[in-house]
Amino acid sequence: MRAIHRTDAPGRLLETIPGIGPLTASALAASIGNAGSFRSGRELAAWLGLVPRQHS
């Protein structure tokens, strides 16, 4: 797993975030795919479910 992670540029970039290890970074990079398909970081956060639900 670590050998695959070392060759994955997006995974290595995600691992620089505090609290994100090689396993989580690889999983995020694999599930997100091309991050350029999202218009903004807010849209990516909503896709991941990191924003509160709106009740209005």
Give an overview of the whole structure.
- This protein has 56 residues and is mainly alpha-helical.
- It has one domain.
- It is built from 4 helices and no strands.
- The longest helix is centred in the middle third of the chain and has 11 residues.
- The chain is elongated and about 45 Å long.
- The termini are far apart.
- The model has no long low-confidence stretch (mean pLDDT 84).
- This is Transposase.
- It comes from Paraburkholderia unamae.
Question: Could you give a quick summary of the protein structure above?
Answer:
The protein is mainly α and 56 residues long. 55% of the residues lie in helices and 0% in strands.
From the structure above, extract its key features.
single chain, 56 residues, mainly alpha, Transposase
Oligomerization status of the protein chains: single chain
The SS-based structural class is mainly alpha
Strand content: under 5%
List segments where confidence is low: pLDDT < 50 over at least 5 consecutive residues: none
- Name the average pLDDT: 84
Give the number of helices: 4
Radius of gyration based on Cα positions: 13 Å
Number of strands: 0
- Order of secondary-structure elements: HHHH
Shape: elongated
The number of domains: 1
* Percent range of helical residues: 55-70%
Distance between the termini: 44 Å
Major sheet: size, sense and barrel closure? none
